[in-house]
Amino acid sequence: MKKTIVIDCKIISQSTSGISGYFIPFVKSLILKLYDYQFILLSPVPMQNKFDYDWQRCKNVVVPYSKRLLHPFFQEIDYGLRVFPNALKRIDADLLISPYYDFIVPPNFVYKTIITIHDLCYWDLSDKYRWYTKCFPRFVLPRSINRSAAVITVSEFSKSRIKYLFNEAIQGKSLELVYNTFKIKERVNRNIESKIGRLKRKIGIQAGIKYLLYTGGVENRKNIENMLASFRKLASEESVKLVITGNCKTHPKIIRLLSKNNLHEKVHLTGILSSEELDLLYSNICDGALNLSLYEGFGRNTYEAILYGIPVLCSDIPVNREVGGDYPIYCDPLNVQDIHDKMYLLMQQGRRLPVEVIDIRFRFESNENKMIRLVKSFLKGEN
Fold it and tell me: Quick one: 192-356 is in which CATH superfamily?
């Protein structure tokens, strides 16, 4: 009888977040290469339109959010404490794999679960979050670690913080580093000039102006306040505009900060872009990229900039040093003047050649092997 693997697909079924970009390639690889196993994908919405795969190889079980709760905040807590665990109780499987940790592991999956911890911002950057935002993750993560067989994380920095903060709970469990992965983009693109033109018109890109790019989201740790305060000063001195991607056009925090800094004419909010459009921003339109986050588990946008040879300004935090090395310009993310000065320096830098060879740490094949080896070791009872 084939063994069964359950994969928690809540996050990847609903968003195009960094976690989705991290986890989807591994899900596809596991399903493709572990052909002796059955797969059950649990998600709040059907996966067929969200996930490109041969659906004869696995089963999608839809576990919807409670309709009694209207606010997403309470829906997420209810899902992690009640809905998702209750669904798991009805499933007989050999292993559960999740790209996150935001649920209670039920009795039938104790020591048969692999969770992923991307960062510990609710602990290390606690003062940036209101109590009701951080109370659920702070409640559920220690319990998830205790009931798991293994933990995956995404950087040496995060691995060290997990060991430090959860030393007792992690004892006797595998703590595996599986990095974010990248691939070389296709350099020859048909009709690229027309595509660039369409995107420029869509966003409102003008000739004779330099453009900086920010793709990192607006969560508290992202340091948007200092980024926009610094950019306001720069925009008053130089012919420069800022492009912010993602679902921000109606985000109250962004709207408030743009008004406060009088930046509505200097900042382009693109909305959600396709991966091809984002590629064009990096490769052919923008002149520099920004990652001024106060805290990250990995920070994909740092290496994305490196991949395209675009200059990048990073906050001087340990994980950016780990991922970016000597490539970025670094600044003190709490010092508005220093950010401004380094933004100015960023604008003076020209493009470098795009990366021809991915850093060995971030190649898919080596991290894929780690993931498959970890899963196989548990299914064969080696841990």
Answer: Glycogen Phosphorylase B; (3.40.50.2000)
